[in-house]
Amino acid sequence: MFDRQQILAGLSLLAAAALVPKTLRAAGKISLDRTSALVVIDVQNCFLPGGSLAVKDGDKVVPVINTLAKKFADVVVTQDWHTPGHVSFASSHAGRKPFETIELKYGKQVLWPDHCVQGTDGAGLSKELLIPQAELILRKGNNKDVDSYSAFNEADGKSTGLAAYLKTRKLQRVFLVGLATDFCVAWSALDARRAGFDTYVIEDACRGIDTEGSLAKAWADMTKAGVKRIQSGDLA
Ligand code: VGL
Ligand code: ZN
User: Fold this and answer.
1) Cα–Cα distance measured from residue 66 to residue 221, given in angstroms and rounded to the nearest whole number
2) Which of 78, 110, 35 is nearest to 176 (CA)?
3) How far apart are CA 171 and CA 103, in angstroms?
4) pTM as predicted
5) How far is the centre of ligand 2, averaged over its atoms, from the C-alpha of 105 (Å)?
6) Can you give the pLDDT at residue 178?
7) Residues in contact with ligand 1 (CB, 6 Å cut-off)
8) What is the pLDDT of residue 20?
9) pLDDT of residue 48
10) Which is the catalytic residue, given 46, 116, 184, 206?
11) Is residue 184 within 8 Å of 44, Cβ to Cβ?
């Protein structure tokens, strides 16, 4: 049994906790501000279970992203958006198989199963993704001869205009989520750093493809470049 003194002590502790300002209680958490933007990478049917380039547990990111998105006023959503016969498809290269690598004018290219063909259901965003306030849907990789993992620059270096869009809107901090960690998320994060953004990747809101050690390499490259690796629970 509690005696009267114990109850009083407990109550005063509760009262003291209530007096601690919210900012202190959130100590160690990352506070979002008006310069923070969420960039949701390629949460498209082709990358979800049953899709032509399914990322393992790709669907698990959707509820995490939906919850996160409620914290952001500014959200950009991207779509991988390839022509039929795109240069990144193994089927466009005689004798080549998916996940082999070839050398193209702009460098190494992993060859993929056909995916995210413009206007097809596979290229559609997940129907479970609920981010009504998202103001920009950016399509990338729509040039037949050039891939674009990154939302910022195509593989040949040509800008998509995303850095200028964010800067015009005074959005300095970029939080990346989506698919796949080791390709489109990582390349976007590296380009965001190169363009001078304060860059975060929210790990539990991403899933990777992980071919030939690509996931470990992507994290090593991102860490080296100063990309911050965080969890959704780290946000205030
Ligand atoms: C992606 C491989 C090919 C991605 C897109 O969204 O990460 N990966 N195209
Ligand atoms: Zn692609």
Assistant:
1) 27
2) 78
3) 36
4) 0.90
5) 17
6) 98
7) 42, 80, 112, 149, 179-180, 183-184
8) 57
9) 98
10) 184
11) no
Tokens of 101: 């690598």
pLDDT in tens, 85-128: 999 999 999 999 999 999 999 999 999 999 999 999 999 999 99
What is the residue-wise DSSP string for 53-92?
Answer: TPPTTGGGHHHHHHHHHTT-SEEEEEEE-BPTT-TTBGGG
Is 206 an annotated catalytic residue?
no
Respond yes or no: is residue 116 known to be catalytic.
no
CA 187 / ligand 2 centre spacing (Å): 12
Structurally, what CATH architecture does the domain formed by 22-82+115-234 represent? 3-Layer(aba) Sandwich (3.40)
Q: Whose CA is nearest to atom 8 of ligand 1?
A: 183
| pLDDT beyond 60 at 17 | no
User: For residues 79 and 152, what is the distance between their CA atoms, to the nearest angstrom?
Assistant: 12
pLDDT class of 28 with cuts at 50, 70, 90: confident
Question: Residue 183 C-alpha to ligand 1 middle, in angstroms?
Answer: 6
Q: If you ran DSSP here, which 8-state letter would residue 179 be given?
A: E
Q: What are the sequence ranges of the domains in the chain?
A: 22-82+115-234
The residue whose two tokens read 């989520």 is 177
> Active site includes 184?
yes
pLDDT reported for residue 13: 53
The token duo for 178 is 């989506």
Over residues 137-152, the mean pLDDT reads: 98
pLDDT (0 to 100) of residue 97: 98
Residue type, 71: K
